[in-house]
Amino acid sequence: MPSRNAWPDLIGHLVLLKQQIDGLDPDGPRTYTLPRIAATEQRLARTERLLGQPLDPGYREFLTYADGWAEFSISIQLLGTSEQMSAVRTTAEDHLDVTLEAVSTGWRRPDLTPIAVASEDKDVIAVGRPGSQVAGQVVWFAGEEVERYAHVKDWFEDEVASHQRALDRLRTMGRC
User: Nearest CA to 127 among 37, 71, 76, 59?
Assistant: First the structure.
């Protein structure tokens, strides 16, 4: 798996892994979808203006290569600029609110911006807002805190590794 590579390398690697997984297990839980095309600087600036805050720099950089990704990982949708201003973000915020009320995580809701949300369960991935004490850190919640990452690229690299493990398992099972 690429490590600390540029976004185009990471995104391209994940696309290839998803394609291979789909070829071996077309009825499996992981779907083969492509990311949307890059967000323009104007679209990013408009999103930040409408949100009333800057986007996390790592997440913003990702959006300059892929403006969101439906069915990013199983039922997880990686939010693009359009989702940041839609009911999808509201759903993600609701998931965050429920999780943070239910368990003591040490995270504060005002410090978090959702960047991905599951359509079929309560998973939500959020990044620490710029200027907060957790700026740039990423947390994955699924009813409780599942994992923390230093920044968006670490989380994305972990997703690439997860897809690589899934592909390796399929190959081991003789589906190639």
Answer: 59
